Predict the structure.
Amino acid sequence: MAIVTTTTVERGPWRHPIFTASSRRMYEPGFLAARLPWLRLFLRRVNAGPLFVALGMLPLENELSSRAIAAFAWSAQRRHGTLSLAEIFDESVAARFPPGTTSDDLWHRDLFDEAQRTVKITTVREPYRREILDETRAGIADDLARMQDVVSRGATFYLTPEGHYTTDGRMLPMRGVVERLAPLTTIYLAGVSYDPFVARRLSMLYRVILFGAPLDAKSETMTRLTRTLAATRPITTSLLLGAWIHAHEASFTLDEAVAAVEDALANLPPKLFVDPELRRNPRAMVKAALPLMAGWNILKRDGDRYRLAGLRRHPQFPHVDDIIAFQARFFEETLESAAYARE
């Protein structure tokens, strides 16, 4: 959302907002409470969906087979009123809550966290499972029609077509909404990279390029779009450092890491875009990163040498098991797509 914020709130004009596609979970009670825990007392039952729509944030279902327990329960409750969890879910889910718990109880303070856990739709009993599947199918058709109408009328529409964050560093498949909208409009691509190792506050870099006039939805065209997007992502310190450490495996010093990053910079395909701070002073960027990586237990420090830790998790990437491997795959995919890079 930083991209939308900087291009509308900071740069305007406000009278022409950017429409966006957002997960349907944002249009259900409890979404804000799950994201803003310090305000949970006041937000557990708040459904901010109408506000999001008024701001130009259009719903799109991106969780087809798995959702939070509360999301499935809310779907059943909207049609049938308050139900016991034992009616909605099989025993594997219902047993997580006190006997007699109802769908309306899931927003209470003591049950809220457990209700946000993700389960498969196969845990939902009939007829609610079939109703949810039918509702999902109809909702997707309505969502896509609404987006096509917005784009056809000339609006700027921002879309994250992968639908979810990657957990291994490689881009996820583009969802069908791209194929529906691509023939209708001129396309700009926003390549996003994160630089998680260089500061405690997560650094995000993005680069926007013009992809071209309306295009068809044939597979070769979509492949070109995907590869161009991968090549548009900025090269960061974390990418180069993570890729080298992942391949190096042995312990190393600061000077060895700096030399490796400088060598990688010198051998990059010329059209790839490099973070200007990294290009200007790679030693300073690597020097800032290594102690932070040790502080997060991604690296172990022994005197002036560093080595990989056994568990390589980053606090800003809770669903990524190995942040070093993540960066290595991200960088590898960017290099594989370098021929599609644009100046």
Remarks:
- The first strand starts at residue 19 and ends at 23.
- Residues 192 and 236 are 11 Å apart (CA to CA).
